[in-house]
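Bit of a strange request maybe. I'm writing a small parser for structure token strings and I need a real example to test against, not something I typed by hand. Could someone generate the tokens for this chain?
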Amino acid sequence: MFDNATKQQVLSSALRLRLASSALTRDFYDRLFDRAPELRAMFPADMSGQADKLFDMVLVLVQSLDHLQMLVAEIEALGVRHHEYGVTEEQYALVSEVLLDTLEHHVADWSEVDRKAWALLLDYVCDLMITGARDHASSAA
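Reply from user aminoacidic:
Good idea to test on real output. This should exercise your parser:
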């Protein structure tokens, strides 16, 4: 799926996070809502649970780098749920970009190599989520 260098880069950068999970994900959502305030309405007023869910998913991805294929159905189902929340395909690129920018701010010694490795992982996840949403939409039609 991913070569060893990419997997090692993602893992290495995850280990270089400078802060706790909740601070990272809260910063991500602050940045996301600054860039796209219209998305705020899709989320609950209390974001603590949502922030925890996001960090848990990132952690699962990092821990599963050697066997991501086992998560395909789960990630596609996540795409279906996001489609039902009103997430559009175009919004995935924005979310990925904001997450990369957030990681850059919070990972010690972040490099372009880190960014490329995470971008590959996020592109993979987004593609699966979009596929799940599309498949669901076409089967419902």
